[in-house]
Amino acid sequence: MEIVILIIAIAVIAVGAASGLVISGRRKKALPPPRETPTVTAPPAEPSVGEESVPAAEEDVRRTIEEVELPGGEAPVVEETGVPVPPSPVVEVPAPTAGRLVRLRTRLARSQNVLGKGLLGLLSRDHLDEDTWDEVEGTLLTADLGVAPTQELVARLRERVKVLGTRTPDELRTLLREELLALVDPGMDREVHTEPGVSADGAEVPGVVLVVGVNGTGKTTTTGKLARVLVADGRSVVLGAADTFRAAAADQLQTWGERVGARTVRGPEGGDPASVAFDAVKEGIEEGADVVLVDTAGRLHTKTGLMDELGKVKRVVEKHGPVDEVLLVLDATTGQNGLVQARVFAEVVDITGLVLTKLDGTAKGGIVVAVQRELGVPVKLVGLGEGPDDLAPFEPEAFVDALIGD
């Protein structure tokens, strides 16, 4: 009997356990399936120094700018870490300045030959009457030589031709070359002075050049090209973007500087030009640069305003040391209008030298003589094209030879 009761108890326990399992299974089935958490694929992080690059997902390959293959080869890699690094900007080596005007003489002669050929043609006539001499005078005036220089040259030519008598083409060319060269005045000091100076406390400061002129004459471009001239001569240069009133001027100058490895100091748009000029010279002192070139504002609004701006820039820069050069940039194609601009700037600041741009684009080569006579300062540089190395030191002999097509 006890055995029967034991068997019945065991059976009851077994049935109960089985029922619990079924209920538990049903409860589990009744529960909703767990909510799946969406997988978010983050973009590959930029590798840090000492870390390996994180591979991107195959379906969405993204590369950093450092990993993009550059023209001419792969991006440079730091050997220790394997991390791609951006390439350094390519620094150009400017063409040497020695003989640069001679190399560009063909370009100059192309535009200036009109003057030389015209004069030689007139002087070669069998009979030089008053009408012919009037034509000679008109040719010179048309070339923007100026009234006084024209009268001097005509008087000298008349005298020498009369003494010469018979005139061969070679004799006329020699005569004309000598007289034109005398007008251009080869004895003037045409060197761009950039000697280091000394500050009030005895410290050495770089040579300082202020570049002035009306906007539109190629002033900022000339500053950049002058940096190339100086670098080609082995000088280290700092550029000061003090033309803060033109939004693109500082960017333009900085681009020129980067091409030759020259640092550009700039300020906020519309900021104080004198402050930028001061900081540029300060930077030049700290870097031990040879020359600081300062591109100034060129707003010819009123003479008083211009005087205030340029005067302040010069005074502030001179707190560091002397200003070696003040170069006035003129557009040679503007002719007599350029002379008007020159007079205004000469009254405002002491001009030490002239830069004539676009001289290859005009047949009015007489502007060289006219502006030198007007200001009493020499033409030191000439622009003969749009290329980066088309700014050349002015050489009177090469210029006159281009005029007469020698």
Produce the secondary structure layout:
Blueprint: H1 2-30, H2 100-103, H3 105-123, H4 130-142, H5 147-164, H6 169-184, E1 197-198, E2 204-205, E3 207-212, H7 219-232, E4 237-241, H8 247-260, E5 263-266, H9 273-287, E6 291-295, H10 303-317, E7 325-331, H11 336-348, E8 353-357, H12 367-375, E9 379-383, E10 391-393, H13 396-404
Helix pairs in contact: 3-4, 3-13, 4-5, 5-6, 6-13, 7-8, 9-10, 10-11, 11-12
Catalytic activity: GTP + H2O = GDP + phosphate + H(+)
EC number: 3.6.5.4
Membrane topology: Peripheral membrane protein
How would you sum up this structure, described in words?
GO terms for molecular function: GTP binding; GTPase activity; signal recognition particle binding. Involved in targeting and insertion of nascent membrane proteins into the cytoplasmic membrane. Acts as a receptor for the complex formed by the signal recognition particle (SRP) and the ribosome-nascent chain (RNC). InterPro entries: AAA+_ATPase, P-loop_NTPase, Signal_recog_particl_SRP54_hlx, SR_rcpt_FtsY, SRP/SRP_N, SRP54_GTPase_dom, SRP54_N_sf. The chain is of the alpha/beta class. The protein is elongated, with a radius of gyration of 39 Å. The chain is built from 13 helices and ten strands. The strands form two sheets. It has an eight-stranded mixed beta sheet with strand order 5-4-6-3-7-8-9-10, with helices on both faces. The chain has a two-stranded antiparallel ribbon with strand order 1-2. The protein has helices spanning 2-30, 100-103, 105-123, 130-142, 147-164, 169-184, 219-232, 247-260, 273-287, 303-317, 336-348, 367-375, 396-404; strands spanning 197-198, 204-205, 207-212, 237-241, 263-266, 291-295, 325-331, 353-357, 379-383, 391-393. Helices cover 46% and strands 11% of the residues. Strand 7, helix 11 (336-348) and strand 8 (353-357) form a beta-alpha-beta unit.
